[in-house]
Each structure stands twice: as structure tokens, then as C-alpha cells.
Write a structure and sequence with these properties.
This protein is mainly β. It has two domains: 92 residues, Ribosomal Protein L25, Chain P; 89 residues, RNA Polymerase Alpha Subunit, Chain A, domain 2, CATH 2.170.120. It has a six-stranded mixed β-barrel with strand order 1-3-2-6-5-4. It has a three-stranded mixed beta sheet with strand order 9-7-10, with no helix packed on it. The chain has a three-stranded antiparallel beta sheet with strand order 8-12-11. Strand 2 and strand 3 form a beta hairpin. The termini are far apart.
């Protein structure tokens, strides 16, 4: 687990609907959101837009258990969906899922491909790396949620394809797709002959 932590301040929201959401964004620089899951009913909330935009700049935000203080009452949650403006890329709405320490989460986390420049297939065999996946869906208890999963390319030779099953997973982390059988073991990266040599 990393030392990064995220806390967002939110208020409960009672005025719902498109007009109210637009007003919030335009006049108050706030973002409408919803938090759901766990034993409590779904709740409409508003967040400080500036605070959220800053948090979103950090890749780790998307794969972290967050603290959302709703009217001062902290709740643990993860971000499940983020709707952005198609042209301005500005957040329009966010969905958060409450986290229960006793129940597994299913989340997408980033893949970080390490040692691309020292990869044997590139350095000594003249190959090139193709990345097929930037993230992976995992299942784990909230306490085991990794910020990202590292894939080491150092010893990968030309002609090798890495699959989901090639990933060395942190303790307590599973890839649900692998339980579905061989057909779901998707490629994540490969080292192939460089087209410049062909």
C-alpha cells in the first residue's frame, strides 16, 4: 500500500434533476455525484469541482479507497464512473461506490510496464514492444487494493506475448477473468520483430 491518500469534501444534495445539476456546475463550481452500495441507500451529493479535478490529475485516485466527508461524516468509497464533457473534458458527474472492509471490490487498476528500455528483446534482439492493455480488472479486499500492478519486461524475448496469466499479482489480488477459462487470458503486451528490420 502506498502513502498516498485522498479525501474529498461533499454535501448532501436534495435538489435533483438536470437543471439543478447545471446550476451547481455553473454558479457554484460544484460537481453533482452519487454515492451508493453497502447497507445504506444511494445518496446524491455535491463535491467541490476544483478539489476533484486536482485529485483526478493523480492516476492513483482511480484505484484508491477514498475518504468522502459528507457533511463532515467520513465514508470510504472508490470511484466507479466519471462522466466528462465531450469537448471540454471537464467532469460533469461522478459515481462512487461505498467500500466495506469485509467485502471484496472489483476494480480496474493501471498496468505499469517496467524496464521497457532494458528489455532483452528490444536491446539485444532488435525487437519492439506493443502494449495491448493499459489496465486490468482485479478483485481483492479493500485493504489489498494496489495503486497499480507492475509488469516487468526486462527478460522478455522477441516472439513472446505476455497474457493476463503472466502478471505477478500482489498478495490477496485476483484477476476474475482468469477464472472463466483459457479464452479469457487476454494478451497484455508482446515483443515482436521490429518492422524497420523487415
Amino acid at each position: 500500500m502506498s502513502a498516498v491518500s485522498f479525501t474529498l469534501n461533499a454535501q448532501a444534495r436534495t435538489d435533483e434533476g438536470k437543471g439543478a445539476s447545471r446550476r451547481l456546475r455553473r454558479l457554484e463550481a460544484k460537481l453533482p455525484a452519487v454515492i451508493y452500495g453497502g447497507k445504506e441507500p444511494a445518496q446524491s451529493i455535491t463535491l467541490e469541482l476544483r478539489e476533484l479535478v486536482k485529485a483526478l490529475e493523480n492516476e492513483a485516485f482511480y484505484s484508491h479507497v477514498l475518504t468522502i466527508n459528507i457533511d463532515g461524516k467520513p465514508q470510504q468509497a472508490v470511484i466507479k464512473a466519471l462522466q466528462r464533457h465531450p469537448a471540454k473534458n471537464q467532469p460533469l458527474h461522478a459515481d462512487f461506490l461505498r467500500v466495506d472492509a469485509a467485502h471484496k471490490l472489483v476494480m480496474r487498476v493501471p498496468l505499469h510496464f517496467l524496464n521497457q528500455d532494458t528489455c532483452v528483446g528490444v536491446k539485444t534482439e532488435g525487437g519492439a514492444i506493443s502494449i495491448n492493455a493499459n489496465d486490468v480488472e482485479i478483485s481483492c479486499m479493500p485493504a489489498n487494493l494496489p495503486e497499480f500492478i507492475a509488469v516487468d519486461l526486462k527478460d522478455v524475448h522477441v516472439g513472446t506475448t505476455l497474457h493476463l496469466s503472466s502478471i505477478v499479482l500482489p498478495t490477496g489480488v485476483e484477476i476474475p477473468a482468469l477464472a472463466l477459462g483459457q479464452d479469457y487470458d487476454q494478451p497484455i503486451a508482446n515483443v515482436h520483430k521490429s518492422t524497420a528490420d523487415a
